[in-house]
Design brief:
The chain contains 11 helices and 10 strands. It folds into 2 domains: 186 residues, 2-enoyl-CoA Hydratase, Chain A, domain 1 (Alpha-Beta Complex); 47 residues. Strand 1 and strand 2 form a beta hairpin. It is α/β, with parallel strands linked by helices and 272 residues long.
């Protein structure tokens, strides 16, 4: 499927979303945002898809929001607000639209991998943070640039970043808008691993294939347990986890895993 702004493909259980507006530095213009949302929604519902990969074309993974459009929208909004104030009309609260992508990716039970091919800043960095695993090119750079526009991260950055790099480092990155290179991002835990730029596609594919060959139900249940556990204390987490195996013991995946252990071989999980 080709949305022009976003290319969406599915092959052997792996869905790939490629941001395809290098002329716009893969900014989250309406076509890109909508393409990501619709493609990710399709991948989440497609039983044949086991893993989702998100990447970009050109030198940029995603440069975040379309600043020119934001400036125009701000100007129009201020004018509309002034007019409404004169008429005594209250302004309704509205979302950015891109925040729903983060909710969709986190709500998707399947593993989501960001293959960060270049610069990821602002909402583009938040997009990468919303993924489960981040594999970065050694040419990638990262920054929460909202502060340079007098803004705060509005698409998940304040949620994800402290959980990945710690409170103090998250404060530093958000308050300064400083850029970090791929190696520093790996050191502080912002990305999972860094690979040579020319090996990024193959590294992401290798990880995706490894997960696609794994036990689907166990991976899906463990993803939910990981993220649900962020909001639980230890006892609640243990009680929650105790109920998980009940739905897995009778699956073919569990039987194959046990059989492979007894036979001292690698398990082979069938795709359904």
């Amino acid at each position: 499927m080709d949305y022009h702004d976003v290319i969406y493909t599915k092959e052997e259980g792996i869905a790939t979303i490629t941001l395809n507006r290098p002329d716009k530095m893969n900014a989250l213009i309406p076509g890109v945002s909508q393409g990501i949302y619709e493609s990710a929604g399709d991948a989440a519902k497609d039983d044949e898809v086991r893993v989702l990969v998100i990447t970009g074309t050109g030198r940029t993974f995603c440069s975040g929001a379309d600043v020119k459009a934001m400036a125009q929208d701000t100007s129009q909004t201020e004018t509309q607000t002034d007019n409404k104030k004169k008429k005594g009309i209250k302004r309704a609260k509205t979302g950015t639209g891109t925040d729903r992508i983060a909710l969709l990716l986190q709500g998707c039970d399947k593993p989501v991998i960001a293959a960060v091919n270049g610069v990821a800043v602002g909402a583009g960095l938040d997009l990468a943070l919303a993924c489960d695993i981040r594999i970065a090119s050694n040419k990638a750079r990262f920054g929460e640039l909202y502060i340079r526009r007098g803004l705060v991260p509005s698409t998940g950055g304040t949620f994800f970043l402290p959980r990945l790099v710690g409170l103090d480092k998250a404060c530093q990155l958000i308050w300064t808008g400083d850029m970090v290179n791929a190696r520093e991002a790996e050191r502080i835990g912002l990305v999972t691993m860094v690979v040579p730029h020319e090996e990024l596609e193959s590294a992401a594919r290798e990880m995706a294939e490894k997960l696609a060959k794994g036990p689907l139900r166990a991976i899906q249940r463990s993803k939910r347990a990981i993220y649900d556990g962020l909001f639980m204390d230890l006892q609640t987490t243990l009680d929650y986890i105790a109920s998980v195996p009940k739905g897995l013991h009778e699956t073919e995946e569990n039987k194959e895993g046990a059989k492979a252990f007894v036979e001292k071989r690698a398990p082979v999980f069938k795709r359904k």
